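ingest -> validate -> predict -> emit
validate: passed (alphabet ok, no gaps, 171 aa)
predict: started
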Amino acid sequence: MANGGDASDVPQLAHVSQAAAPINLILLLLFVFMIYMKFRPTLPIIHPQRKPTVFRTFTPRTLLPFNGISGSPVYLAVNGRVFDVSAGRNFYGPGGPYANFAGRDASRGLACGSFDESMLTKDLDGPLDTLQGLGAEETEALRGWEERFQEKYLVVGKLVPVGSPEAESGL
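emit:
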């Protein structure tokens, strides 16, 4: 060639300029980043320390203080099971959309899809709600809520009526 190089130098220069094209560099950086993300060291997950929860028996009156007020845990009962819903404090604690269920038997209200105070048992020392009068659709809705709570929250006890032998023993 005229400037001292031979014809074989031209294809090598074209090959080098293609390898350094911006899209190839971006793809290479993306590949290196993905490899880094896959094999990077991770910090161990530290869970906050909680007091151990003991399974216990509640009556409507002994369940009532677990309403999330003043930092207390948030419990609610569904179909005789008491769930610790403190992890969902935004929903079940003070100011949440389901706050009137906190510390109470929420079965009828959940079954009927109502947050009305009339859905809650008024006499805390009276018998438990037997859920009579619920239709098949409402019973199915209650079953769905109960399953959701079992998947998501810890069962911390059971709800029994005042005066029952279990209520007297506190077990």
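Residues 9 and 15 are 10 Å apart (CA to CA).
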